[in-house]
Amino acid sequence: MRNVKVYHVDAFTTTPFSGNPAGVVPDAAGLTNQEMQSIARELNMSETAFLRRGDSDADFRVRYFTPTSEIDFCGHATVGASWLLATEFGWAQQKAQLVFKTNVGIVPVEWTTKENGDVETVFMRQSSPRVQHMDLSAEEVARLLGVDVTSLDRNLPIRLGYTGNWHLLVPLTSRKAIDEARPLLTELAEVNIRQNAVTTHLFTFDCNPDFYDLYTRDFGPAVGIPEDPITGAANGALAGYLVLEGILDRAQRHKLRIAQGDVTGRPGTVHVDILPGMEPEIRVGGSAVVTIQGELRL
């Protein structure tokens, strides 16, 4: 019998039982693909990150599994794993950043600390942003999402966005419209699979500007996640879309606060830092809370 240490980390929050829960296996050395998939299914969180010590170009090799399949990248599980290593395993006292090797390449993660030295936030640099046109009409998108077509924000384009995974990005006119969305999950999964998209991400600028810049909601039935509470990868793709489509000036630096998770009862905040340039750099981060530590017996 082998015992495998597992952790439950709530990402993008400072409050236990909110934010987006991720499974983290800090030492996955020796685990087979089937064992990792079985552990992810047993933990039954939207994603579980499996880490093993890296080689010369990274501190850790990381793989991400949903309960049904492996995906190339997951933002909130990266935040959760980084927070766990920085706080519970002492990496914040050893160095200023970690370097992860993922299926989409190298992902550096840095942390900020409070005056007393405690970790405050972790920020990951995501892959270079890209956007693609998609072949669905506005009427079809509205039908798939269970919203009135007049709720779509026609001033902004519907696009596929990427900073590690492809996401279908859909602008809506109001937070109310996003909260009332009732997607046809089976059909939406089929569409996302055809698009090679991991999730469909709804967003709006309709929120209290004193606290947030955008409000979002995310559906991932194509990878076995009906609704993901808070998404680092999708909000990173959204940030890339905003500058590549000229909605935000790519010559300026932008710091965004994105609210998500209210409908699922797990509210949290994603912080996004967009660094200017011909190829904008997207950094996504937040806080986290370790809520469960245990051992799984194989």
The helix/strand series, from N terminus to C terminus, equals EEHEEEHHEEEEHEEHHEEEHEEEE
- CATH domain class of the largest domain: Alpha Beta
Number of strands: 18
Going by CATH, the architecture of the largest domain would be Roll
Mean pLDDT: 96
Unreliable residue stretches: none
CATH level 4 superfamily of the largest domain: Diaminopimelate Epimerase, Chain A, domain 1
- Estimate what percentage of residues fall within beta strands: 35-45%
Radius of gyration, taken over Cα atoms and rounded to an integer in Å: 18 Å
| Global geometry | globular
Please characterize this protein's 3D structure.
The chain is of the alpha+beta class. It has 2 domains: 3-126 and 286-297, Diaminopimelate Epimerase, Chain A, domain 1 (Roll), CATH 3.10.310; 130-283, Roll (Diaminopimelate Epimerase, Chain A, domain 1). The chain has 7 helices and 18 strands. It has an 18-stranded mixed beta sheet that branches. The chain is globular, with a radius of gyration of 18 Å. It starts with a strand and ends with a strand. The mean pLDDT is 96.
Summarize the structure.
With 298 residues, the chain is α+β, with helices and mostly antiparallel strands. It has seven helices and 18 strands.
